Amino acid sequence: MTLAITESERRYGPADLLFAEAVVRQAAVAADNARLYRDAEGAREAAEAASRAKDQFLSTLSHELRTPLNAVNGWATILQRGDLDAEQTRRALQIILRNVTAQVRLIDDLLDVSRIEAGKIRLTVQPVDLRLVIEEAMDGIRPAAAAKNIRLQSVLASPVGPVSGDPDRLQQVVWNLLSNAVKFTPKGGRVQVQLQRVNSQVAITVSDTGMGIGAELLPHIFERFRQGDSSSTRPHGGLGLGLALVRSLAELHGGTVFAESAGEGRGATFEVRLPLMLARPGTETARAALVQSSSLSPGPSLAGIRVLVVDDDPTAVELNRKILTGVGGEVRVCAGGAEALAMLRQWRPDVLTSDIEMPGMDGYSLVRQVRALEPSQGGKTPAIALSAYSRPEDRVRSLMAGFNFHVSKPVDPSELVTIVASLAGRIG
User: Fold this and answer.
1) Average pLDDT over all residues of the chain
2) Can you tell me the distance from the alpha carbon of 128 to that of 373, in angstroms, rounded to the nearest whole number?
3) How many Cα neighbours within 13 Å face the side chain of 409?
4) Is the peptide bond before 410 cis (omega within 30 degrees of 0)?
5) What gap in Å lies between CA 39 and CA 36, rounded to an integer?
6) What is the bridge-based pairing of β-strands 351-354 and 190-198?
7) What are residue 239's phi and psi, to 5 degrees?
8) DSSP secondary structure letter of residue 276
9) Boundary of a domain, candidates 217, 245, 278
């Protein structure tokens, strides 16, 4: 603040100083108030933007969950009426399975994002052959590509050396990139996967001839819930989680990912780079042999194996009974923990399967009481937890309670049969 006097004979005195100090104090208060008002306005606008983003996300989430449910409910209702011939029934079942798979993937993606944000995601690290990982991911995406007449090509270099990582998570990375490419590539287009060594790294490149990425969106393409078009008229569904998971999982493996595109309508290229292992272990093909043997095997027989199924959901009981008796298993069912304990006294199963959340006595309490029994009374009966709870901490809690395995719903029939056979000593 500057004070000036027009009269040449006038001199400042103590009163002028007091006046200047009072004016400066008032000006400072006014400036502070203006700054606080500006900050408050900024916070209010940020809160309103966050609220709108939350509402938009919940709306999109509801749409993405209800869409497959609508198909499942509709076709299940038609099947129930029995009006379809054999071919139509086969087609209806395919639609139901495809939509259930889509919903499971959506839920898994949401849970993975939550685990990554909380720092709770765990990797089962081992030597990984990326050629096998890519081939498995391509097998999973081929039906979607074939439905759009998209050419799915691979250019995989001769063995480039293993990487250290979680094979399932790395397959998730490749699958998400392929799924994204197929989704945004029009009918008759092309999607290519390339694997090559770049110095001390391995590069996985997925390119397509699709709709491309605008320059304004490209820097934000790996952000969570970020979509090029989130309006109700958008041509493609999804929550904008796939690429965010790709980046997070790649970084957890010590790698990087980047995207490039010449612009809208000119395709896109995504590249993931992962560090090579320093040494090539002698057992790197073990996973490949395991996967190949499991894919070629028709599945073990459960003939002569007794299984006690415990679940308060009649639909789940009916499904599990059908799966296990379909391969020769002898199955008895109970609707709760108390009933299961009573059944153990009169009928000794080889394996017990139990839901976790049940009224009266949950699965944890049931298996603890089973483990408290004498071996002659069934205290050593192998037990499988079949639960919709699928977090890593849920699996740990099941094992600590006394279960031998934790299997997340929806249950894969072949996986359930294999685990039962293994626990009963039929394989392993």
Assistant:
1) 82
2) 42
3) 17
4) yes
5) 5
6) unpaired
7) -105, -5
8) B
9) 278
- Tokens coding 317: 């009981």
Q: State whether the Cα torsion 128-132-135-136 is positive or negative.
A: negative
In the numeric block, the tokens 């029994």 are attached to 373
**Residue 201 shares a structural domain with residue 135:** yes
Shared domain check, 273 and 131:
yes
Is residue 172 in some structural domain? yes
Instruction: Give the pair of three-digit tokens for residue 56.
Output: 């938009």
Four-point Cα dihedral 250, 251, 255, 257, nearest 10: 60
In Å, how far from its chain's centre is CA 191? 23
Tell which residue, 44, 48, 64, 114, has the closest CA to residue 230.
64
**Residue found by looking up tokens 């069912």 in the block:** 333
Q: Is-contact 175 141, C-beta < 8 A?
A: yes
What local confidence, expressed as pLDDT, does residue 225 receive?
56
Amino acid found at 245: L
Query: How far is 8 from 170, CA to CA, in rounded Å?
Result: 84
Model confidence over 88-102: pLDDT tens digits? Answer: 898 889 888 878 877
Does some domain include residue 14?
Answer: no
0.70 exceeded by the pTM?
no
